[in-house]
């Protein structure tokens, strides 16, 4: 039989009134005022992230997930082989949470006592996923269904992060890649809406053409022409990503001697969660705190900053010129 039905308003009326009372359910803050103008995080939504390798995609999405945990108590499942193994992922979360380092080379090293104090919070809010059997493949639908169905004594989880799409097994079963993507991404969207989860997917882009009007500075201060910043259409199977995506954001790290990201929001859906636009250099990485920040009213503001003081920034303190250890590649 045909798998369609007419939805009954009487069954949905309570939900419509709740939707009205919540002002159409705009998304939650990202923790960054400059980004909230263009993008917010909504349960039942999906966000696809792309950009050049080492552009800061993974770090920024972890930042957003950390903020959702700190501000709203949200829990996230991480399937992130591109970030590293369990120790590497957990230590990254610990450094972001504590502002300390695992390597004594950089000082302010994490202690065992720090880990004992932080482990319950980190392990509650972040579930790091791995394969039960390394010889068996994991598909995207395996991940989406896991996030939707997972329950423990504390309840469910609200979001899932994939880094990256290439780490899944993709069974085309004779289909063209675009038709496979249409099917899988549409199913992802339906699962996120039904179970009110948010899925963040990092997908690498194909090589883009040289942008003759743009230059890039490397860590040695050398300028060179840079490639056009990729968007959803540059992801392998790109047309399907754009057609099925809800929120799509490209991340760029244009100046390796700086600490600032550029963000390009090319699609936002549904209405109310954001708008198309770009943010240039306003979100910056504090290398010693392991977190991103913005400048608000002359003050350095992290997503966990309780309030912003109104005093003017001291003229001898220029955050733009903070010393950056160029031996370290943060992304």
Describe this structure in words.
- The protein is of the alpha/beta class and 331 residues long.
- Helix content is 29%, strand content 21%.
- The chain has helices spanning 9-21, 33-36, 57-72, 86-98, 112-125, 140-149, 177-195, 238-244, and strands spanning 46-51, 76-79, 126-128, 159-163, 198-202, 210-217, 223-227, 247-252, 260-267, 277-286, 291-296, 299-302.
- The chain has a ten-stranded mixed sheet with strand order 3-2-4-5-1-8-9-10-11-12, with helices on both faces.
- α4 crosses α5 (112-125), α6 (140-149) packs parallel to α7 and α7 packs parallel to α8.
- The longest helix has 19 residues, at 177-195.
- The relative contact order is 0.17.
Task: Give the rounded overall mean pLDDT.
Answer: 88
Q: Please give the number of β-strands.
A: 12
- Runs in which pLDDT lies below 50 for 5 or more consecutive residues are 308-327
Radius of gyration: 21 Å
Principal-axis shape equals globular
Helix-strand category: alpha/beta
Specify the biggest β-sheet: 10 strands, mixed
Cα end-to-end separation: 50 Å
Would you list the SSEs in sequence order as H and E? HHEHEHHEHEHEEEHEEEEE
Q: How much strand?
A: 15-25%
Counted by DSSP, the helix tally is 8
